[in-house]
Specification:
By secondary structure, the protein is mainly alpha-helical. It is 61% helix and 4% strand. The chain has a domain at 177-283 and 304-359. The protein has 16 helices and five strands. The protein is elongated and about 125 Å long. It starts with a helix and ends with a helix. Mean pLDDT is 75; it is low at 26-38, 322-327, 330-425 and 441-448.
């Protein structure tokens, strides 16, 4: 009986222990299950973001963008929303190509629009400039991407001047402006060699004023001074010779510029200490120029060679202007130097017949045979020889002796004179018959 009672108590104790254990386990599961569900829903956006970042690191761009877009659409209040938006732009930038870089610019622009006050906005603006920088062509080709890169990098340096990306942005801007200046310099040199000052001078004027850090800026100043000197504007020519000596003291043309100043009777300025220090520091900076083995490969590249760009100095941050600073234009009796929007200055009453004029936006350039009005009222071509100009003046003098009330070839009531029309028709028929006779003579000579 005792054994039976003992076994009975043991079974009861075991049942109670089982019930107690089961109840505690159920209570623990019921308590912890809601917490697990809450953490899962709260970290789902994080899981999507980390998965997208992993795909981006392994160049699975489509999968990365799909995860980022799912995060943006599903969790609009997520803390990873801005990061996902920026990662989509980074995926297009990393993918590269014409389509990828174009889409990257659009995505970075959208990020700056939606999140303008985040620290990542500076990075997005920098990436816009770099996208255009990667699509930049050589100096003698399309320059639209170079202009876009210049504008984007200038915007970055003006809006975010004190960031860790500022030194990189300044160097990239110097390289972009080197490419733009080199394109203008090549065109200006083409016209300068052929002594076509009208086409060469405006480009050189814009170049020396806008891109002083250009590697060939000293030569551009020399060419511009030569143009003014051969057009007999020595006072303006000496200013550019002096500028070469003062701002580019280490140039190989500085000694020749000093000789020109002495020859023209102008004072020789002292080198600018700031410009001298800048050129010395730039010469000491490394310039990664392609070697002999890499030069054949450079010919196959679509991008420009920026190894000659300056490494020191403040790049130009102002947008590109439409008009030049000063030009050469025909004055009374010769050529005169005219500032943009100003009056003639330094006219010495002599010239060579070649001139430069500024054409305002929206107007077309006058043709090469455009006429210049003389004080007597006659017109003569700007490039015509002196005999042609004299004959034009003689015709003007003869026409001035005509009756002021009625002009030659017209009647008193303003109608054309029939006799004049008959004379014109006879002259035309005589010209046609003469040309026919010449044709017949040529054909007779050809025939055996």
């Amino acid at each position: 009986m005792r054994r039976m009672r003992t076994r009975k108590y043991n079974w009861i104790g075991a049942a109670l222990a089982l019930i107690l254990f089961t109840g505690c386990a159920a209570q623990k599961t019921a308590t912890t299950k809601p917490a697990a569900d809450g953490n899962g829903s709260a970290e789902a956006d994080k899981v999507l973001y980390e998965r997208a970042v992993n795909d981006l690191q392994h160049n699975r761009f489509d999968l990365s963008r799909l995860s980022m877009q799912t995060l943006i659409n599903t969790y609009p209040d997520s803390e990873y929303l801005a990061k996902a938006k920026l990662a989509i732009a980074d995926s297009y930038f990393k993918e590269g190509g014409s389509t990828g870089l174009t889409q990257a610019v659009a995505e970075y622009t959208d990020f700056i629009t939606f999140f303008p006050f985040l620290d990542e906005a500076a990075y997005a603006q920098m990436q816009i400039g770099m996208a255009h920088y990667r699509r930049m062509e050589k100096p003698d080709r399309d320059r639209s991407e170079a202009l876009e890169a210049e504008a984007a990098l200038q915007t970055f340096l003006q809006k975010y001047p004190h960031t860790e990306l500022t030194p990189t942005a300044e160097q990239r801007l110097r390289e972009v402006q080197e490419v733009l200046a080199d394109g203008d310099f090549r065109i200006a040199s083409f016209y300068y060699i052929r002594r076509m000052d009208k086409a060469s001078a405006p480009r050189l004027l814009d170049l020396v004023n806008r891109y002083p850090l250009y590697s060939q800026a000293d030569r551009a100043n020399w060419m511009l001074a030569s143009i003014y000197e051969r057009n007999q504007h020595n006072d303006v020519a000496t200013s550019y010779y002096a500028r070469l000596v003062k701002e580019y003291p280490l140039s190989s043309l500085a000694a020749e510029a000093k000789s020109k100043l002495v020859k023209l009777g102008a004072p020789v300025p002292q080198p600018d200490p700031t410009a001298l220090a800048r050129m010395q520091k730039d010469q000491q900076a490394p310039h990664d120029r392609p070697g002999l083995l890499k030069r054949p490969g450079e010919l196959l590249k679509s991008g420009p060679d920026v190894s000659a760009a300056a490494r020191v100095g403040q790049p130009t941050l102002t947008p590109q202007a439409e008009d030049a600073t000063d030009t050469l234009s025909p004055g009374g009796g010769g050529l005169s130097v005219v500032a943009a929007g100003g009056a003639p200055a330094g006219n010495n009453g002599s010239g060579t017949g070649a001139y430069v004029e500024t054409v305002s936006p929206g107007t077309s350039d006058p043709p090469a045979g455009s006429s210049v009005t003389n004080p007597t009222g006659a017109t003569a071509g700007a490039n015509d020889p002196p005999a042609a100009a004299a004959s034009a003046q003689d015709q003007a003098g003869q026409s001035s002796q005509a009756d002021p009330n009625t002009s030659a070839g017209t009647s008193a009531n303003g109608n054309a004179d029939p006799s004049t029309q008959n004379q014109g028709n006879q002259a035309g028929s005589q010209g046609e018959s003469t040309s026919k006779k010449k044709k017949n003579k040529k054909q007779a000579r050809v025939q055996p």
